[in-house]
Amino acid sequence: MRFSQLYAPTLKEAPADADLISIKLLVRGGFVRKVAAGIYSFLPLGFRVLKKIEDIVRQEMNAIGSQEILMPIIQPAELWHETGRWDDYGPEMMRMQDRHERFFTLGPTHEEIITHLLRNELNSYKQLPVSLYQIAMKYRDEIRPRFGLMRSREFLMKDAYSFHGSWSSLDETYKQFYGAYSKILQRIGLEFLVVEADSGAIGGNESHEFNVLADYGESTLLYCDCGYAASDEKAEYLLQEESQEGAVADLKIVPTPNSRTVDEVSAFLEVTSRDIVKSLIYKGRKGYYMALIRGNEELNESKLKAALEDQTLVMATPQEVLDLLGVPIGFVGPIGLPKEVTIIADHTIKGLKNAVCGALKEGYHYSGVLPGRDFKIDSWHDLKMVTEGDPCPKCGAPMKSAKGIEVGHIFKLGTKYSEKMNGYVTDEKGNSIHYIMGCYGWGVSRTISAIVEQLHDENGIIWPLAVAPFDIIVTAVNIKDPIVSEKSIQLYDILSEAGFEVLLDDREISPGMKFKDADLIGIPVRITLGKKLAQGIVEVKPRTEKKPLEVSIVDGFDTLL
Ligand code: ATP
Ligand code: MG
Ligand code: MG
Ligand code: MG
């Protein structure tokens, strides 16, 4: 490929809304362009990287006998009603209606679809195990789409699902996926940490997350010399279970007749009873925070800031919320229009979510009910963040922490979906049993950001060879010089024939700009044909080195191969 023909508009400056080094470099290098918050187009360079990651993932899936399929992105609501997740999934689910006003979702994940697919076709344990995967777009209306491809609203995921007649068969397949995921990261050449994870909204029994280590990773990982490693959510959950018997399971919701009134709370919030209060619990750098915002608005960082400034927003730590309002965290609002209120409880605060669901299930419907006045939650204060230095749940030694980017997540789902959706097979004895499932996600597009977060320097991206958009860039310093032009084309042909993917920088711009772009877009090796070509010398510079190596080509290009 000639650079003069490549559609790769590079930029000197990153756009103001690029909030992390990886997305800054990806935009500046002409890899991607933002269309809307969390929605991106991939330009040729970005698409090449995406395809390379996809290929590695595909090869490792095929190697463990998983078979590729393609399922629809648009999924009928009926299937999600069967599992209850149409209601449980919350505002992250993108919903739509067709012309007949039937509801659909743009799939955030595919457990329902695949369970449905197989329940009509699978009959006997003899057909099991089965392992299927797809590589397709997923849609999640993330509350805070940010960090470019890392937390986007449309993203490419590899999602695999396995079906078994026995738990031991699931264990075996789960191990294979564990191995394949480690191999994917090793092949790309990234430092990573596998941690025990909380299975969150997907549900299930055992689960591991594969995290690329990076300073600005969104996940906090805790690990210990004894080999134990877990996401902070999981470690927190375990610690609570151990130290406080049943602290999570036993959250009691008790009516409290004499708590604050709607008016008092409204006054504090400076909202009228007609306003809608959205509450958001999120994990800030110093712990859990709660934000309350007036109006039925999308929350994002700049709105949060603005709302804070004009004081329509209250931000407080859990203890402050309790002190100020006499209401436990997460339970201020709804006031006024109950249907439109969204309580978004990060599932990391598991107890709170249980409590919200519990409150709803036990008939505390939100209309006319003021949580805190009408009920409160005991032991919410047991929800403490686990941090560095806290005792390891396995051996008690102080744990260390690291930041990571979750790129892969594997779950043992068990029979959660087959039970809810009537997925049966007959076992050896002829009995009908629910098939046992596993599911395995990989964020293909997020991996791009994770790579750049880990591998960059002040000049740009440093792609590992396995996923680089091109292997070699041949920089013809002055393309108008007939010897440079002839030799660089000759070199380009030789390298291409030898199986390398080569980008020939034949643009009529200054050498400085060429070098800058080459560093920015991060191609692993640069071969420069410049002034010294007259003496039969070219420069070879790996992207990771500061100084080039001079190589003589007097006897031809063989020395370069
Ligand atoms: P997170 O904790 O970051 O929100 P998740 O646990 O919700 O991710 P999963 O449901 O486990 O995500 O999905 C499988 C994989 O899909 C994740 O490990 C991640 O690599 C990728 N992924 C999830 N959400 C996004 C997103 N908003 N943008 C890009 N990739 C994503
Ligand atoms: Mg998520
Ligand atoms: Mg997660
Ligand atoms: Mg996950």
Automatic annotation (TrEMBL):
Domain Aminoacyl-transfer RNA synthetases class-II family profile: 33-464
SUPFAM superfamilies: Class II aaRS ABD-related, Class II aaRS and biotin synthetases, YbaK/ProRS associated domain
Protein name from the UniProt record: Proline--tRNA ligase
Keywords in alphabetical order: Aminoacyl-tRNA synthetase, ATP-binding, Cytoplasm, Ligase, Nucleotide-binding, Protein biosynthesis
EC number: 6.1.1.15
Role according to the record: Catalyzes the attachment of proline to tRNA(Pro) in a two-step reaction: proline is first activated by ATP to form Pro-AMP and then transferred to the acceptor end of tRNA(Pro). As ProRS can inadvertently accommodate and process non-cognate amino acids such as alanine and cysteine, to avoid such errors it has two additional distinct editing activities against alanine. One activity is designated as 'pretransfer' editing and involves the tRNA(Pro)-independent hydrolysis of activated Ala-AMP.
The reaction(s) this protein catalyses: tRNA(Pro) + L-proline + ATP = L-prolyl-tRNA(Pro) + AMP + diphosphate
HAMAP family noted in UniProt: Pro_tRNA_synth_type1 (MF_01569)
GO biological process: prolyl-tRNA aminoacylation
PANTHER family named among the record's database cross-references: MITOCHONDRIAL RIBOSOME PROTEIN L39/PROLYL-TRNA LIGASE FAMILY MEMBER, PROLINE--TRNA LIGASE
The family this protein is said to belong to: Belongs to the class-II aminoacyl-tRNA synthetase family. ProS type 1 subfamily.
Pfam families the record matches: HGTP_anticodon, tRNA-synt_2b, tRNA_edit
Any one GO MF annotation of this record: proline-tRNA ligase activity
Gene designation per UniProt: proS
Membrane-spanning parts: none
Localization terms from the record: Cytoplasm
Enzyme class of the recorded protein, top EC level: ligase
UniProt remark on domains: Consists of three domains: the N-terminal catalytic domain, the editing domain and the C-terminal anticodon-binding domain.
Organism of derivation: Mesotoga prima MesG1.Ag.4.2
Gene Ontology cellular component terms for the protein in this record: cytosol
Subunit structure: Homodimer.
